[in-house]
Amino acid sequence: MKVEMLDNMGTDASVVRAARVSYGKETKGPVADALLIDFLIRNGHTSPFAHVVFSFRLQVPIFVARQLMRHHVGIAWNEISGRYTKLGDYYVPHLYRFDGNDKSYSPTAQKVYENSVESAIRAYEHLLESGVPREVARGVLPLATYTTLIMTANLRALLNMFEQRLTLHAQEETRDVVHEIFDAIHDKVPISMKSFTYWKLDDKRVRTLSTLEQHFHDITGGKATEEDWQRYLKRIGEEGALQ
Ligand SMILES: Cc1cc2nc3c(=O)[nH]c(=O)nc-3n(C[C@H](O)[C@H](O)[C@H](O)COP(=O)(O)OP(=O)(O)OC[C@H]3O[C@@H](n4cnc5c(N)ncnc54)[C@H](O)[C@@H]3O)c2cc1C
Question: Using one digit for the tens of pLDDT, what is the confidence trace for 221-232?
Answer without folding.
Answer: 989 999 999 999
